[in-house]
Specification:
The complex is a heterodimer of chains A (295) and B (477).
Chain A lengths: L1 H37 L1 E4 L4 E5 L3 H7 L2 H33 L5 H13 L2 H11 L6 H8 L11 H29 L3 H9 L4 H28 L4 H6 L11 H11 L3 H33 L1
Antiparallel strand pairs in A: 1-2
Chain B lengths: L1 H18 L8 E7 L5 H15 L2 E7 L1 H13 L7 E4 L4 H4 L14 H4 L3 H7 L1 E2 L2 E2 L2 E2 L6 E5 H4 L2 H11 L9 H11 L19 H13 L22 H12 L13 H9 L5 E4 L2 H8 L7 E4 L4 E6 L4 E9 L3 E2 L5 E3 L7 H11 L2 H7 L12 H5 L10 H16 L4 E2 L6 H16 L5 H19 L1 H11 L6
Parallel strand pairs in B: 1-2, 1-3, 12-14
Antiparallel strand pairs in B: 3-13, 4-5, 6-13, 7-8, 7-9, 10-11
Helix pairs in contact in B: 2-14, 10-11, 12-13, 18-19
Classes of the chains: A mainly alpha (295), B alpha/beta (477).
Chain lengths: 295, 477
């Protein structure tokens, strides 16, 4: 019996190691390779021989005003848009959960933006906010506000990017929060109704705390995804005017695919990874504290 | 009867033997360029014709534009022999030239060779004295305007009253802005002109088109972008400043939101009749004549010039009695080359000669979506070939403007330098800031000059200087 178990252990390793090695090669090798490249000066254009530069690329990044500018832009877009997505998405989920008239129609309509490719969303937005042909400016002109440079004035351009993010990703929040609402036990709410607890308190003291773990997860997903925004920015503003709407990913794209500055781009990617890890960790720590308070 | 049957049997055989001329049976060429239809469809069209003539085979491999440069450079520098012919942009020639074969001598003679305009044949296709590539597409910026507005008698009289000279295609930038102002009528949905101002929308070529007039000094050849003796950036000199101020002034006569317009937006604005003029490559004219609302009224002129050009040596303006035209060969047009590591170099050059032959290119220039623009004398002279696209007046104007641009003694070549996109990216960022009013024009140009000088040092000043001089047709120092 003991011998059989020993042989079984050996076979376990035979099955496990190839899979482990494949995962190692497929997942970790690119990361390790990119990490190594990030400590080198490698340019394809013009071709320069690779040179070990230590942390010079990282130092350059941290002292670059353009990096901090793109960091600020990304943060504004992500935090404002995710906050709005959550508030609006939760509100819509509550409305749909309470079967407002036409709920089925709304359910389908609200989800549509999420199914569109971000590039399509950006193209639609570009037409809508077009200074000359777009309906928004038509309406503004009709109301006597004149032509508003939505995509060429830095603050307005960021506002448009936030609007587009909210429009596209609120349905995602709605969908998950609605699923969460539908999974809540009816008995609790019925008991609250019997006790004549008003709707606002039912939301504050029952619905919200019970959905808090889901809310934390939804916001976390949206935060991480939000930091990757590039397609809508690329199509809508190209990062301009100047670098006013350039996000971290667009900055990395420009360095990597326009200037082919590979060492610097790798360092940017790792800096970006570290930022996302820091933001994610800080968020989860804060969320845990909030959940403990409600527990 | 037997003789007749024999003859009938031999004729197809003889025909088949003649079809393989030269005989490249069993040879498969891999040729590559950007995703179609533009350029790739012209290469595919020639591939079919080459296959019929030589019995060889051609695989046209397409990649997104952004991937072309690293793919080609990596393949050639690693000697993989992956590509037999490549379609690329002139700005990359400095980096590619060491890995390219030289065009065979027999292709550099005869009527077909002489038929290529010398600006392409002797300047853009040549690197360090050797012909390394073949132009398959002619490109330059031109001024497009509408005949229905510019040739209208009432407009002419009103313009004369207001500005004191004849309304005609502008020969100076001041005239260009006068005309733009004259036709600028936003209340009625018409705007003076359209240019690209968007970062990432090819804006820098539009800026260069203005700058050429003030900085491409015929007394100091090759001094537009850099000092050809020291490689110091010239982009913050008073000539460039005037160009930027001009370029920015144009925003007043563009449709609203022009800061977000790329070259792709400029074309329909002209073709749709929204603007009286625009500056663009040849595409605007074709679009206007074929799909726009101004068909029949498309007119094309050489870019405006200037009577003053900055002299970086004297640090002063050189003045000229008549406006000096400095038409700018923005982009310069797609080129074909054969990598030195190709195992089928002879066949590949034969294929290249097929693509650029007067017959094949003559078809490509008038075929929709090939993206091929004229570059041969025969392209400019054979007006009848263009009548499927333009009216005769339009064709004469369109071809005349291109030919005049190439023939202009002070024609300005585009910047071709290793690290081209690093230089232009810096330029675009600062340019956008200046156009948006975030920084003063001089401040933006000073920032660009400083960063260009840093890039030059990083890439190696001596090697960059040598490349720059070669790109401008200047002898090595």
């Amino acid at each position: 019996m003991h011998q059989t178990a020993g042989r079984g252990d050996a076979i376990k390793h035979v099955f496990m190691w190839p899979a482990f090695l494949i995962v190692l090669v497929v997942t970790l090798f690119p990361l390790i390779y990119a990490l190594v490249v990030s400590f080198q000066a490698i340019r394809i254009v013009p071709p320069l021989p690779p040179r070990f530069v230590g942390v010079e690329n990282y130092a350059d990044i941290l002292s670059s005003a353009r990096f901090w500018g793109s960091m600020w832009t990304t943060s504004v877009i992500v935090f404002v848009s995710v906050a709005l997505q959550f508030v609006i998405g939760f509100a819509l989920a509550l409305a749909l959960h309470h079967n407002v008239p036409g709920a089925n129609l709304y359910r389908v309509t609200f989800l549509l933006p999420m199914f569109l490719a971000p590039v399509c969303v950006a193209l639609i937005a570009r037409m809508i906010f077009h200074p000359y042909l777009g309906p928004v400016n038509d309406a503004m002109s009709g109301m006597g506000f004149g032509n508003i440079p939505f995509l060429t004035e830095p603050n307005l351009a960021v506002a448009v990017l936030i609007t587009v993010e909210v429009w596209q990703w609120t349905p995602f929040v709605t969908l998950l929060m609605l699923a969460g609402l539908q999974s809540l036990p009816d008995e609790v709410f019925e008991a609250a109704k019997v006790d004549n607890i008003p709707a606002w308190r039912r939301f504050r003291d029952i619905t919200f705390p019970m959905l808090l773990p889901l809310s934390v997860a939804v916001i976390f997903i949206r935060l991480i995804e939000g930091f990757k925004v590039i397609d809508t920015v690329f199509v809508l503003t190209g990062g301009g005017p100047g670098t006013a709407t350039e996000t971290l990913t667009l900055f990395a794209y420009n360095e990597g695919f326009k200037k082919f500055n590979l060492g610097y781009t790798s360092a940017l990617s790792f800096t970006f990874l570290i930022i996302v890890i820091i933001v994610g960790t800080a968020y989860l720590a804060a969320a845990q504290r909030v959940m403990r308070r409600y527990a | 009867m037997n003789k007749l049957l024999l003859t009938a049997a031999i004729v197809p055989l003889a025909g088949a033997a003649m079809a393989c001329e030269p005989d490249y049976s069993g040879v498969t060429l891999t040729v590559s360029t950007q995703n179609g239809p533009f350029i790739a469809s012209a290469m595919a069209m020639a591939a079919q014709s080459w296959e019929e003539r030589t019995c060889g085979t051609v695989n046209v491999v397409e990649f997104p534009f952004g991937e072309l440069y690293p793919k080609f450079l990596t393949a050639m520098s690693q000697q993989t022999g992956e590509f037999d012919a490549i379609g690329f942009v002139p700005a990359w020639l400095p980096d590619f030239a060491p890995f390219l074969s030289t065009m065979p001598a027999e292709l550099q003679e005869g009527g077909d060779w002489e038929d290529i305009h010398p600006v392409y044949r002797e300047r853009l296709m040549v690197w360090n004295g050797e012909v390394k590539s073949a132009t398959m597409d002619g490109d330059m910026h031109m001024l497009n305007y509408r005949a229905d507005l510019m040739e209208d008698e009432a407009n002419k009289a009103a313009f004369m009253d207001r500005y004191g000279y004849e309304l005609a295609a502008p020969v100076t930038w001041d005239q260009y802005y006068d005309i733009a102002e004259f036709f600028h009528d936003p209340d009625n949905g018409r705007f003076g002109t359209a240019e690209a101002y968007r970062r990432g929308g090819q804006q820098f070529w539009y800026f260069f088109s203005h700058a050429a007039s003030y900085t491409n000094n015929p007394n100091n050849p090759g001094s537009m972008f850099f000092d050809p003796e020291t490689m110091d950036a010239q982009i913050n000199n008073p000539g460039w400043l005037r160009a930027l101020e001009d370029y920015k002034k144009g925003l007043d006569f563009n449709p609203p939101g022009a800061l977000n317009n790329g070259s792709g937006d400029v074309r329909p604005l002209y073709a749709g009749g929204t603007v009286a003029m625009n500056i663009d490559w040849a595409d605007s004219g074709v679009l206007g004549a074929t799909e726009g609302s101004i068909a029949g009224n498309v007119r094309t002129a050489m870019l405006p010039g200037s009577t003053e050009i900055w002299n970086h040596k004297t640090g002063d303006w050189d003045t000229f009695d008549d406006p000096v035209a400095s038409p700018f060969l923005a982009f310069g047009g797609w080129q074909l080359a054969v990598p030195a590591d190709s195992e089928n170099a002879e066949a590949a050059w034969d294929y290249v000669s097929e693509v650029i032959s007067p017959e094949m290119s003559g078809i490509a220039i008038v075929t929709a979506n090939t993206g091929v623009n004229p570059y041969r004398f025969s392209h400019y002279e054979n007006i009848d070939n263009w009548l499927s696209v333009f009216t005769r007046e339009e064709a004469e104007s369109y071809l005349g403007a291109q030919r005049a641009s190439l023939d202009a003694p002070n024609v300005a070549l585009d910047m071709r330098l290793p690290g081209f996109f690093s230089y232009t990216e810096v330029l675009e960022i600062e340019l956008s800031k200046a156009l948006a009013g975030e920084v003063e024009p001089q401040e933006a140009l000073d920032a660009i000059a400083a960063e260009w000088n840093e890039l030059t040092d990083e890439f190696g000043r001596d090697s960059q200087l040598a490349a720059y001089r070669a790109s401008m047709g200047l002898p090595p120092m």
